[in-house]
Amino acid sequence: MFEDLRAACRRDPALSGVAVLEVLLYPGIWAVWLHRLAHRLHRYGIPVLPRALSQATRLLTGIEIHPGATIGRRLFIDHGAGVVIGQTARIGDDVTMYHRVTLGARGWWADGGTGRRHPTVGDRVVLGVGATVLGPVHIGDDARVGAHCLVVTDVPAGSRLRAAAATIDVPPPGPSHRAPSPLKAGPLKAGPLKSGPLKSGPLKSGPLKERT
To answer: How far apart are the first and last CA of the chain?
Structure first.
């Protein structure tokens, strides 16, 4: 437990001075600690309880780690929101991952549902924000997977993966981008009033009726 705290303090520049005590509030720390308990219960063959502990951890931290996943020493999950680690995943020592990382399978229609379905991550690997690694692939030691990379093949040790950066598209000036023109006011147009002869007709009369 203490080496997990030291690893977090060394890898997060925000933990300095008095702020170092905030490491106890990091969801990634608690997620790893609770997973170790759930994983031990899973290995003992205890039903339901390991999965229930995993789901409670997800509710509290936003990090979902299957009890069957194998995690090495000094794993640091920074921020942690949205991290998912599948059942047969294996993670080495001194790995760092950021929020929204997924170590998942390719789907029941592709992996058959048996055997190893999730990635194996080597030692000292860094998984950037939103990195997604699918299937029984292997990420070699000291590799760095950049933000929002999609990995579906093996990654050699020491490799650097980068996703395509956003491009800036400046639309050309056109009618749809011009400012609306102000309303033009002009003098009111007056014209002669049109008149015609009044139409008249004979008055209709009838006998007066007396009241009795």
So the answer is: 117
Model pTM?
0.78
| Cα 84 from Cα 40, distance rounded (Å) | 19
DSSP letter string, the chain: -HHHHHHHHHH-TT--GGGGGGGGG-HHHHHHHHHHHHHHHHHTT--SHHHHHHHHHHHHHS-EE-TT-EE-TT-EESS-TT-EE-TT-EE-TT-EE-TT-EEE-S-HHHHTTSS--S-EE-TT-EE-TT-EEESS-EE-TT-EEPTT-EE-S-B-TT-EE-PPPP----PPP-GGGSPPPPPPP-PPP--PPP--PPP--PPP--PPPPP-
Work out the number of other CB atoms within 10 angstroms of the CB of residue 99. Answer: 18
pLDDT 10s digits, 135-178 = 999 999 999 999 999 999 999 999 999 999 898 989 888 766 55
For 63-76, what is each residue's pLDDT tens digit?
A: 999 999 999 999 99
CA atoms within 13 A on the CB side of 86: 22
